[in-house]
Amino acid sequence: MTDATQALDNVPQAPTDAPPNAEASAAAPLPAAATPKSDAIQTAATAFTTGATPSAQVIDAPLSGESSAEPQAVELPRVVEFRNVSKTYAVGTPREYTAIRDINFHIDDLPGVGEFIALLGPSGCGKSTVLRLIAGLEPQHPATTGEVLCFGRHITGPGADRGMVFQEYTAFDNRTVLDNIAFGLECRGIKKKERHELAREWIAKVGLRADRDALKYPHQLSGGMRQRVAIARTLILSPRIVLMDEPFGALDPMTRLRMQDLLIDLWQGSEATVFFVTHSIEEAVFLGDRIFLFSPAPGTIIEEIHAPRPEACAVEAQAEPEFAERVRYIREKIAAMEEAAGVL
Fold first, then answer.
1. Angstrom distance (rounded) from CA 81 to CA 344
2. Nearest alpha carbon to residue 173 among 211, 214, 220
3. Is 108 helix (H, G, I), strand (E, B) or coil?
4. How far is it, in rounded angstroms, from Cα 7 to Cα 172?
5. What's the rounded Cα separation, in Å, for the pair 259 and 301?
6. Span 57-112, pLDDT tens digits
7. Rg value, the chain, Cα
8. Of 148, 145, 121, 122, whose CA–CA distance to 137 is shortest?
């Protein structure tokens, strides 16, 4: 079974780590005499169990008998968290190989906002391993040591809360563009008329034309068009987390830049958190709110770079001095790492 098939097979399923009584928790009323403090705790608890994004709340009203103190913020759930995660393949054999070692990071669930995280580093440093651990895809999943959590719960496999776009063009050859995009909705039991209406909307959103492209088959599409279909098939399901493994790596330079602009436009209309693996420094600087810079294998995160996204489009951004300076800094950092590691 391929990674793409493994991921698609799990699209319609409810998140594997979802609590069994999420609906009951969400529907449970608060006590009539609830205090501001218990309101905030209940809201945070409901958000944690349902995966909803709560608004930030501050507890500033003391209970009876309590002294007034500094306002206390309610901690929001974390979208993804890695705790001392390592992955070693073929343990105990001559082929034993450690891809990543002691990876630690967390992404907070900011109210109404999704973050764009770029994973950047030399070839073979474990970027894709991190991505597939989040996806719950074998053989990367499970981690050899450490914990991988999604909204506070251990990831046990693929789930509908996470959507993945691969570098390879993944589509059902015997399905049209329309039915490829609507595949996940079909698996969820959405009626044909409704899912086709939504699929046609997404065909337009990703820059294709429903009247011209909806009934085409994958072999009739260019590489860029097929990746647009793959992105639409993922985003139509509104996943909380979008995982992208070098999706534009095989595209020509100008198509790649146009796809970067398209991705930002689509992402800004959602609240999803995006993890994006790339070998391109320019792509990471343009797309990422944060850039996780990996060392050579076994990969560790050696630096977290906050990179305010340029307001210009991808082509124009690369001419900006600030953009060029960030690219230069990261390129020199990677070059120094590879030299120290003896990488030619």
1. 33
2. 220
3. strand
4. 13
5. 27
6. 333 334 444 444 555 666 768 999 999 999 999 999 999 999 999 999 999 988 77
7. 22
8. 148
Write out the two tokens for 303.
């630096």
Let me know how long the chain is.
344
Pick from 35-39, 104-108, 297-301, 320-324: least confident: 35-39
51/17 Cα distance (integer angstroms): 10
* Amino acid at residue number 237: L
Nearest to 100 by CA among 67, 144, 154, 160: 144
- The beta strands (E) that lie in 136-208 are given as 145-150, 153-154, 162-165
DSSP E strands: which ranges in the chain? 58-59, 72-73, 78-89, 97-108, 116-120, 145-150, 153-154, 162-165, 241-245, 273-278, 290-294, 301-306
181 vs 175: CA distance, rounded Å: 9
- The pair of structure tokens assigned to 4 is 């793409």
What is the rounded distance in angstroms from the CA atom of residue 188 to the CA atom of residue 171? 18
Tell which residue, 100, 131, 78, 121, has the closest CA to residue 274: 131
Q: Select from 247, 305, 7, 224 the least CA-distant residue to 136.
A: 7
The encoded tokens of residue 245 equal 């493994």
CA distance 319 to 315: 8
